[in-house]
From TrEMBL:
Protein name per the record: peptidylprolyl isomerase
Naturally occurring in which organism (per UniProt): Scyliorhinus torazame
Catalysed reactions, as listed in the record: [protein]-peptidylproline (omega=180) = [protein]-peptidylproline (omega=0)
UniProt-recorded Gene Ontology molecular function terms: peptidyl-prolyl cis-trans isomerase activity
Lineage, uppermost ranks: Eukaryota, Metazoa, Chordata, Craniata, Vertebrata
Transmembrane segments: 144-166
A cellular component annotation (GO) from this entry: endoplasmic reticulum
Matches recorded under PROSITE patterns: FKBP_PPIASE (PS50059)
Signal peptide: 1-19
Amino acid sequence: MSRAMLLFLIILSLNGISSQDEKGQDLKVEVLLKPENCPELSAVGDRLHIHYTGKLEDGTLFDNSLIREPLVVELGRKQVIPGLEQGLLDMCVGEKRKLSIPPNLGYGKRGFPPSIPGDSVLLFETELVTLVKSTYWKKVMDNVIPIACLLLVPGLLCLIGYYLYLKANVPKICKRKFKEKKSKAKNK
């Protein structure tokens, strides 16, 4: 058997092992309550007001928004862990979901000490209280303003540099020579 074929078989077997290890790494979404009337679904760019209860797999409560104001999240802004953000997509106002978030979509190997140990599966029960849809112009502005700011700073620096360059290249006239030129102009 050639070395290339042996290497190919080793890589193939390693791919099979790694894909088996990652099988339990998907977000699980269970709809607990879905309203009959659902005119709008949440999408990236929308602002959501949610209540949630966060627990570990053993039932230990680590966070709860029910004792305070709802959490305000703008989807797509990475304001919450990826699993929670993905679990909030396509929700209706009044909908309740149970999310099982694997470590790779939560806090990963490091966790969030002291309340969340590393490699923890997180269980969230969420309820969408309010949905504020993103408008077309808001989406445009969210994309245009950062680009404009990136272009504005170098543009201003270029203008300042050009102004200083012009100012440095203007011939300097001393006052005495200026008075002499003025008096010659009057005499003519």
